[in-house]
Amino acid sequence: MFKKTITAILVGGLTLCIFLPKEFTYASQDEISLSYGESNPIRITDMLNRLIGKKGYLEEADKKVIENVEGLDLYEINGVNKKASSIIDEKTKYFLDYELNPKMFSLRDTAEHVEIWVANDLSYPEDDLRNADSISADQINKMKKHFEEEIYPAITKIHGAPEFHKGENAWLVNQGYLPEDYYVSRDDTSRMIILVDNIKDGLYYQENSTSYIPGYYWSVHKKYMDRDIIIVNSKDWEGILGSIYLSTLTEETSRMMEDKQNDE
Questions:
Q1: Given the DSSP bridges, would you call strands 192-197 and 229-233 parallel, antiparallel or unpaired?
Q2: Cα(24)–Cα(54) distance, rounded to whole angstroms?
Q3: Highest-confidence range of 9-23, 58-72, 104-118, by mean pLDDT?
Q4: Rounded alpha-carbon distances, angstroms, from residue 98 to 103, 113, 130, 201
Q5: CA nearest to 91, candidates 76, 78, 105
Q6: Whole-angstrom Cα distance, residue 130 to residue 157?
Q7: Cβ neighbours around 257 below 10 Å, total
Q8: pLDDT tens digits for 19-77?
């Protein structure tokens, strides 16, 4: 069993819980509180990527992923089983969240350098009365335009034209848990992926919380899915958080490019 503990980050008197394996938390609660202080929003990219450097973490992460993906029904799409027709919907796929749980996403738009996928389930905890989040076509287009017209030209100017991972060497595929080329784009083109999800943060668990995770980049996704992925939050895209998410997308893409250069 993959034991968990709660690493708590105190923000404005509220607690954001990140569930991490006990033996692999990279810092004590005091150290995390000192690092984040009263900051808002919460940035978890550094914390997630430091885990990878911990001795034995990836081996334990493998066990956790296997536990979570074994028996995954690739034919179950939005409650409809399509196994009789042997159809695996190429526009609906499982991706891993920061707890290494598989979650279903649907492809909403594709551009020259980016694919945008949105989680099928953007709801809140069962006892929460809030409606599930929704992402409109206009909001998808805004993300796509922001990436293609602002982010991509900027990173190309600094780092050169990036060669994004195409999904051909995904660990989940090589280990036999997903079919061949599961994460490869239909046109076999190198693109970055944006995942839009209702991230489990303070605002997910408490409607009146002021702590939230606008988005993150976790390099471990390259191992399991062999794609370059940025996750952004789905909450309050109509409000002030929408503009924050776009700036987060810029910031996390830059972090990803720095990571890619370090790998070379």
A1: parallel
A2: 6
A3: 104-118
A4: 11, 24, 23, 11
A5: 105
A6: 43
A7: 21
A8: 443 333 333 334 333 343 344 788 888 888 888 888 898 999 999 999 999 878 775 54
Q: pTM for this one?
A: 0.82
Task: Spell out the domain ranges in the chain.
Answer: 76-263
Distance CA 157, CA 32 (A): 35
Per residue, the 3-state secondary structure of the chain, as one string, reads CCCEEEEEEEECCEEEEEEEEHHHCCCCHHHHHHHHCCCCCCCCHHHHHHHHCCCCHHHHHHHHHHHHHCCCCCCEECCEECHHHCCCCCCEEEEECCCCCEEEEEEEEECCCEEEEEECCCCCCCCCCCCCCCCCHHHHHHHHHHHHHHHHHHHHHHHCCCCCCECCCCHHHHCCCCCCCCCCCCCCCCCEEEEEECCCCHHHHCCCCCCCCCEECCCHHHHHHCECEEEEECCCCCCCHHHHHHHHHHHHHHHHHHHHHHHC
Q: Which two tokens stand for residue 13?
A: 């008197």
